[in-house]
Amino acid sequence: MSLRLPKKPRRRWGETLLTLLIAAISWSMLIALLGVIGFLVYRGGKVISWEFITTSMREGMQAGGIAPPLVGSLWVATLALLIGALLGTATGAYLSEFSAKGRLHRLIELLVTTLAGIPSVVYGLFGLALFVVAIGLGASILAGALTLSLLSLPILIRNAQEAFSGVSQELKLASLGMGASPAQTFWRITIRIAFARLITGYVLAMGRLLGETAPILFTVAAYYLPAYPHSPLEPTMMLPYHLYALITSGTNVARTYPMAFGAALVLVSLTLLLTIVAAILRFRLKKHLHV
Amino acid sequence: MTIGAFRASALTIILMLAGITLFLFREGIPALTREPFEGLVFAVHPQNPVQKLSAEDCRALFQKNLEWPAVGGPSVPVLPIHLYNLERYVGSQATPEKIRVFLDSMAQVPGIIVALPRQWLPKSLRPITVKWSAWEALLARVRWSPTYEPLPEVGIWPLLLGSLWVTFLGLLITIPLGVVMAIYTAEFLPRSLYYPMKVLWEVVAGLPSVVVGFWGLVVLVPWLQKAFHLTTGETALAAAILLGWMTIPLMASLTEESLSNVPRLLVEASYGLGATTWQTILRVKLPAIRASLLTASLLSAGRILGETMIVLIVSGNAPVIPTSPLSPVRTLPATLAAELGEAPVGSYHYHTLFFLGLILFLLTLILNILAYVIAPSEKAA
């Protein structure tokens, strides 16, 4: 009995078509994104100038620049990042390097996952009830920064965990083998190698924080306050809320909408810039360190 | 020292969730135990035989939607007076003396019903009790107008159903598109484009929602209005499209991750049996990751459910029970964002909003815990 060779497989046109279809769908994401950003650039580009970014609002909100909300946003987001990074990195280090992988570890992991899923507006409620009312900070930069730092914790913890556990085990063991204590190993070896990845995470978190609106509504943001804050206990305008105010409460749409497009473009550019910087950092890390 | 500090910071995470839960309950529970008309006394003319009114009847009397005979009162027209319509009768500049004289003269009208602070109550009127059942007000009523005086309407159904409706519609976009993009990225995308695709997802997921909402308001809403011949394009559909789009990256990256973790053995066995790439994807890989598909869907649902600004900007914000994708809706988070700034701290409205926040928190908590419980069962397989 002779061996029968299988026929040459037919080309399956249905499958090729399906592949093309899902490729088209996947890349339409890019087209949609470019559509959104292109539209904002088209409408907002005309408004943006050095003056727009560096001067205060005039005539209600119908003219002038966006400097106070921009400065306010940067203040709050930076302060929030400082607090969040400190707490998040320490927690990430504990989970990745020091905790016994027991029940407590699993509980904290579950809580971090849970916290990541809580809507940002609920953080806003919590911030209002705790920082603004119970502690008595009032609507202030500090109250908003604390609220936002809690919001950013899950991302920062995850990031720190990945950064620390990404450091190769050999290095850590070699250090321990030389007689260094776990704490020495952490400060001299682990955190130095993980440093670049940590920074990447901070940049990414900063991008997210700048765009958050719901948590700042009740904790910091002033509707109209064309002045720069002098202390963390003062309220301030913030860019996302300012944009929202421009969109919804303008009586003279013909004059407020151009301002809104300008503000939207600045906000998007900031978050986009930070996201892309983080992406490039991470990409270069991947190439250089196969950790 | 180092380790102790790190452990302490990890323990604050536990404190934090406990704190969030505690404060939401602390501020939300008074919506069930307190009455919206604390400090007010309801009273009628002494010859009016009515002793007791349900909150609904009382509200209807104040709205003049109900006549006295319907609740066992005299056949006279209703004259409702409360703190907030006083101004209409006496003007905004009235002195306390003038208000008192006015109230005393009104107290002679047989059809009067008042809701006033005790010190303002004319002596001749007879107080009555108004029965307020918090559960009934929150769960058995279908209207939301929490600032209506003196008896607000705080039925949560329009908001809850609005939220669920938008989430459902959003998932109809997120799940299929997310899975398709995950398949493409995991199976067909050239390796050199893999990282750019991931960055693209990150960028979309990281767009500030207020900006996406603004874009929706200016571009998508007018387009929907024209396409469906609507009076306004601010609909559940507009919100769902934008929310669904923004959540695709979450769905896609979770799915993509689990697709590339399908055991090689399974995949190679499938190819070895002569299956094509697509047969392997549809009959081997997707069934193998069905638990993580469910997890990813639950997490996406949680994300959509909690999104605030987009819905606030493009969904029309009408607190009515949605009947079609083209009805305007108002969701739980949008209500919080829109009203909390105006509700005085400690007022009934404030507590009601925290009660809504509590519901939202519990819903997302359940979704997340479900996702967490389902997820690991598959890693073991």
Instruction: Name the CATH architecture of chain A.
Output: Orthogonal Bundle
Q: Give the integer mean of the pLDDT values of chain B.
A: 90
Q: What is the fourth-level CATH superfamily of chain A?
A: MetI-like
Helix content of chain A: over 70%
The Rg value of chain B, from CA coordinates, equals 28 Å
Account of the 3D structure:
The complex is a heterodimer of chains A (291) and B (381). With 291 residues, chain A is mostly helical. Chain A has a single domain, classed as MetI-like fold. Chain A is 74% helix and 1% strand. Chain A is built from eleven helices and two strands. Chain A has helices at residues 13-44, 50-54, 67-98, 103-117, 120-134, 141-165, 169-177, 182-211, 214-217, 239-249, 253-288; strands at residues 57-58, 63-64. Chain A has a two-stranded antiparallel sheet. In chain A, helix 3 (67-98) packs across helix 10 and helix 10 runs antiparallel to helix 11. By secondary structure, chain B is an alpha/beta fold. Chain B has two domains: 40-131, D-Maltodextrin-Binding Protein, domain 2, CATH 3.40.190.10; 157-380, Orthogonal Bundle (MetI-like fold). Chain B is 64% helix and 7% strand. Chain B has 16 helices and eight strands. In chain B, strands 3-4-1-5 form a four-stranded mixed sheet. In chain B, strands 2-6 form a two-stranded parallel sheet. In chain B, helix 9 (209-227) packs across helix 10 and helix 13 packs antiparallel against helix 16. The chains are: A mainly alpha (291), B alpha/beta (381). Chains A and B meet through helix 1, helix 3, helix 4, helix 5 and helix 6 of A and helix 1, helix 7, helix 8, helix 9 and helix 13 of B.
